[in-house]
Structures are given as C-alpha cells and as structure tokens.
C-alpha cells in the first residue's frame, strides 16, 4: 500500500510542477522545501560577466623587478631549447639513430629531416587498421626519379608490384602497404 501511495505522490508531484520538492524521494507526508529555504552559494567571478574590471595592476600585486637574480638559473632549466643542440659524432648511438652523411647532397633529390633530425617517413593506418599507407614526406628535387627508385627497391625486396602515388605540390609520396622499415633502411643507405 505504501509503494502505491509513493508512486501516486510522485505522479502528483510531476504534474504539480517544480514548486515543491520532496526530500530524499521518500514518503514524508508531503513536507515541502521551498526555493527560498534552500541556501545556494553563488560563486563569485564564475564567468566573465560577473568578474570585476582589473585596474591598477601595480597596486594590486606586489612584485619586484630584478635584472640578474641568482634564482634565474632554476627558471632557465625549465625553458625549452632555442634550437636543437649540435650532435657529437660517434661510431654508433645507443638509440640507433644514424646521422645524415655528406654524400646525400650530391643526389638529384633530397629528403629533409624533421627539426629533431629524424627521417620523415610515416605509416598511416585507417579503416579500422585495414588500410596501411607508408608516406615519405619533405622531398626536395626530382620527386619522380625518387618514386621510380623507391618502387624498384621495394619491388626487388618484396618480390611483388608496389602501388604508389606522388603528390608533387605537397612534396610527398605514398606507398600502399607497410614499408616504413624498408624505406628507412633505403634512406640510411643513401645517406639521408
């Protein structure tokens, strides 16, 4: 009987409007909470319209301008580098990174590296992992000759026909399939 009475009260509250709210959704014999009895804390400066105008910043905050503080060395550690530091030449590097060689500048085409001195050869995976496209980006010079040489290299290595698409204005070549490791090996062998 009590559950029927609760459902009837809920039905009556639904159609009666939002003027009366019953606490904890229990049958408390219609004790109502009026909107004026609810204490709502209004958040000051919660949006742009309620925030005050900022005037006289020098008076609002106390600060001191110091030209050469000793604490500045701690701040300099956190700032990003202005440029990539020069690499010290070695036989091999622990990460497997291979530096660019001078013989690459004599070829009719050139593969630029990224600002971190990495090759710009990527794998694009789409269609839920079904379509894999290898991209060689940042190509300068004769892009068509580079396309022919890469297709010939991949055809000999994988012993099958390789589909490619050349974007001459955007300076990149796409190969249908996952050939990123083979393309990086080729680029390192040429000195890029």
Automatic annotation (TrEMBL):
It comes from the Eukaryota. Keywords: Mitochondrion, Ribonucleoprotein, Ribosomal protein. One of its GO terms (cellular component) is mitochondrial large ribosomal subunit. One of its GO terms (biological process) is translation. PANTHER family: LARGE RIBOSOMAL SUBUNIT PROTEIN ML49, MITOCHONDRIAL 39S RIBOSOMAL PROTEIN L49. One of its GO terms (molecular function) is structural constituent of ribosome. It holds the Pfam family Img2. This is Large ribosomal subunit protein mL49. It is found in: Mitochondrion. InterPro entries: Ribosomal_mL49 (IPR007740). Its main location: mitochondrion. Belongs to the mitochondrion-specific ribosomal protein mL49 family.
